TrEMBL record:
Protein's recorded name: Na+/H+ antiporter MnhB subunit-related protein domain-containing protein
Location(s) in or outside the cell: Cell membrane
Keywords: Cell membrane, Membrane, Transmembrane, Transmembrane helix
Location of the Na+/H+ antiporter MnhB subunit-related protein domain: 35-154
Mode of membrane association: Multi-pass membrane protein
Pfam families for this protein: MnhB
Family: Belongs to the CPA3 antiporters (TC 2.A.63) subunit B family.
Listed InterPro entries: CPA3_antiporter_subunitB, MnhB
Membrane-crossing residue ranges in chain numbering: 37-56, 62-81, 93-119, 139-157
Source species taxonomy: Bacteria, Bacillati, Actinomycetota, Actinomycetes, Pseudonocardiales
Source domain of life: Bacteria
Amino acid sequence: MTTPDDRPFEEWDRPRQRWLLSGDCRGLRQRTLLLEMVTRALFQTVLVFSLYLLLVGHYGPGGGFAAGLVAGLAFVLRYIAGGSDDAVRMRPPVLIGLGLAVALLTALAPMVVGAPVLATTKLAVDVPLIGHLETQTSLFLDVGVYLLIIGVVLDLLRSLGAGIERDLQAAEEQSR
């Protein structure tokens, strides 16, 4: 393992972790080190905040849509800082389909017991080591919307970023 002091001066600030590399940038001088460091510090925090918005949405402002948009913004930040290779490992259409399926099944589930569509009820569970937890069944609908919105944002990043990737490949082929 090398320390920053063991590497030559020209290489001491190059990132060693794959998820924050600038991707296919045209030159090392075009890297934005400040953006990479801010992304490294904020990405997980923004995702935790989006989960907070998801869970508190029934008792205050928030819910699946707002939480999905906040999580989507975290992935946009990561995409801008690290390129398209590392934004997310799961394919966006899978997230869209999964979110849509969860939301649809949750919306139609009350019909099984004779209740109207989108009816909600309170769930109370005693969890060992945590204690008594209460939530609404509409939380599952919000989870579906959350996954759906994240999938749509990632699909937009993939679609809009394809032109950038194409331009970078063309510039790289021209330089050869």
